[in-house]
Structures are given as C-alpha cells and as structure tokens.
C-alpha cells in the first residue's frame, strides 16, 4: 500500500488500515564513533549517485552530487526536545493534523495520532508539525533542515544501497506496518544508516529544506517541500526506499510526518569558553 501525498492519511487512520506490529525496544541510543556530544552525527564530504533508475519518475535521472561535510541529528526530533523549544517561547505547540480539503472529522481522526498530547511519547518523534514548525525548531537549536541531497547521502552513503541498512528486504529493521502510531526513536538499530543514523526508513516521513520537482531535470523552485523516509503505516518495501521522494504543502500537518535537523560543520554555536583569540576580538567589537 503506497501512502502517497500524505493527504490520503485520513482514510487510512479512520479505518485503522494496516496490521499492527509490536514495537521493538532497542538497547538504547549508544553513540557511534562519529556522534558528537549533542546528538549529531558527523558526516564527511563525499560524492554519490543520487536517484534511482528503478524508482518513480521523480527519482530520475540519476546524477552525481557532491556533498560538503555536515552534521545530522542521530534521531528524529522527539516530543521532549520539541517541548523544550515550546517552553522557551521559540516554537508553537502542535497537536492537530491539518491539510487542504480535509473535513473536520478527517482532521479529528488523524489528530488522535499526534504525539504532542499522548502520555508516554516524550521519546517518540514530534509529528503533526508543518514545515515552518520544523524550520523554527531547527533555528532554535542552532541548526537547519537538511537538504534533500544531504538526506539521501546520509541514508545511503556512496555505495548505492536501496535502504539505509543495505539491499536486503525490509522486515524487522524499521518501524512500519503499524496502525497504532509511532515508535520510540532508535527502537530498530539494525536498520541504522551507514553513518549510524536511526529511523531513516519508517517511523515518520521527514521534512527537508528542498523544494520539489517532478524530476531532477526540472527546477526545484516549487512551494511544495520534499519529505523523505517512509512512515509507520508503510507496508511495501518500495515505500521505504532511500531514494523515494514525496512532496507536500509547507502548511500540512500529519501524524506521519516529522523531521530531524542538520548543521554545517562550521555552524556549531560558539561557546565563550572555547573562543579563539580572533573570536575574542570579534566579540569585543560586537559589544556596545
């Protein structure tokens, strides 16, 4: 079953479509060798082949992309992390689903799966957030949304794998085939990407910074934003491939959609305890 455009969530959620799969608790979010102290993974610069000749039309043509070194959140942004932003007055809370042409009943059905008000979901992905909510949180954290190119490279590396874990068919490596909502982040470590990122397939789709295009030949100066990664309702291997693209209005809020943040390697917030001599001079010039 392809969960397309995410506007189709109303029927799926209202009918409880899709078998429920028990959540597998991981052994904890152990740091990888590339993980920084603030929960980000350092991803080196590289060149990879983006897209797929075997996928949908918008995944073509395959083309070479060079990516600069960057860092990416090891997990999707959790409810607990997002709550800190709301408490700081920098983010808006979000507990309802919304999309164009949805009826009030459809919105109510979908909103039952928004994690913000569900007890015990602090370590689940923050969902039901639109693109602007995600952008605001990343800015609060001193980060940004990843580009579509960064996201795919982080999921696949340069070896052309179909899924984050390799080319083997998906089964127990991800949070999918569920009708009762998301999984705690990092619950399926066997599905980690080659850089050690959790849940790059399944759980929730993830907003990117990139505009959408009908294929890679076209301009991506499109209001619609690209989201990646599949979700907990996905039940077909094709729907959790690392090259699969979907597009949605920036205003859409869905229980199937969340996000994670990225940061350039030189974007790390400057601490006064680690400021260089040159940085001290810059700070003094900036002070009144």
Describe the structure.
It is a single chain. It is globular, with a radius of gyration of 19 Å. Mean pLDDT is 86; it is low at 1-5, 17-32 and 270-288. The chain has helices at 9-15, 79-87, 104-111, 131-140, 148-156, 277-286; strands spanning 40-43, 46-50, 63-67, 70-73, 205-211, 225-228, 246-248, 257-258, 262-264. It is built from six helices and nine strands. The longest helix is centred in the middle third of the chain and has 10 residues, at 131-140. Helix 1 (9-15) crosses helix 3. It has one domain (9-286): paralog of FGE (formylglycine-generating enzyme). The strands form three sheets. The protein has a four-stranded mixed sheet. A three-stranded antiparallel sheet has the order 1-4-9, with no helix packed on it. A two-stranded antiparallel sheet has the order 2-3. By secondary structure, the protein is of the alpha+beta class. It starts with 8 loop residues before the first helix and ends with a helix.
Relevant terms:
6 helices, four-stranded mixed beta sheet, globular, alpha+beta, 288 residues, 13% strand, paralog of FGE (formylglycine-generating enzyme)
Strand order of the largest sheet: 7-6-5-8
Here the CATH topology equals paralog of FGE (formylglycine-generating enzyme)
State the end-to-end distance.
60 Å
Q: What is the CATH architecture assignment?
A: Alpha-Beta Complex
pLDDT < 50 runs, ≥5 residues: 1-5, 17-32, 270-288
Number of beta-strand segments: 9
Number of helical runs? Answer: 6
Structural class: alpha+beta
Strand residue percentage? 5-15%
Number of domains: 1
CATH superfamily placement: paralog of FGE (formylglycine-generating enzyme)
Radius of gyration: 19 Å
What is the averaged pLDDT score?
86
- What share of the residues lie within helices? 10-25%
* Order of helical and strand elements: HEEEEHHHHEEEEEH
CATH class: Alpha Beta
Largest sheet: 4 strands, mixed
């Amino acid at each position: 079953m392809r969960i397309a455009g995410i506007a189709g969530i109303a029927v799926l959620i209202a009918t409880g479509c899709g078998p429920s799969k028990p959540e597998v608790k991981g052994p904890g979010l152990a740091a990888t060798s590339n993980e920084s102290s603030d929960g980000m993974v350092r991803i080196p610069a590289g060149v990879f082949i983006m897209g797929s000749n075997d996928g949908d039309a918008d995944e073509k043509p395959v083309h070479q992309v060079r990516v600069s070194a960057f860092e990416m959140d090891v997990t999707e942004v959790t409810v607990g992390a997002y709550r800190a932003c709301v408490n700081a007055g920098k983010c808006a809370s979000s507990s309802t689903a919304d999309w164009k042409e949805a009826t009030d009943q459809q919105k109510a059905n979908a909103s039952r799966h928004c994690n913000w008000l569900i007890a015990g979901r602090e370590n689940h992905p923050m969902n039901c957030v639109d693109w602007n909510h995600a952008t605001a949180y990343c800015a609060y954290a001193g980060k940004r949304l990843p580009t579509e190119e960064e996201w795919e490279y982080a999921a696949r590396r340069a070896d052309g794998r179909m899924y984050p874990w390799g080319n083997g068919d998906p089964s127990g490596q991800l949070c999918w085939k569920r009708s009762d909502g998301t999984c705690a982040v990092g619950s399926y470590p066997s599905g980690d990407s080659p850089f050690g990122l959790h849940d790059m397939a399944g759980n929730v789709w993830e907003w990117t910074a990139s505009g959408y295009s009908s294929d890679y030949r076209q301009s991506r100066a499109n209001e619609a934003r690209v989201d990646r990664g599949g979700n907990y309702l996905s039940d077909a291997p094709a729907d959790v491939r690392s090259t699969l693209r979907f597009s949605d209005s920036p205003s859409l809020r869905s229980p199937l959609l969340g996000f994670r943040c990225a940061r350039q390697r030189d974007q790390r917030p400057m601490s006064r305890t680690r400021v260089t001599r040159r940085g001290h001079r810059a700070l003094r010039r900036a002070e009144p």
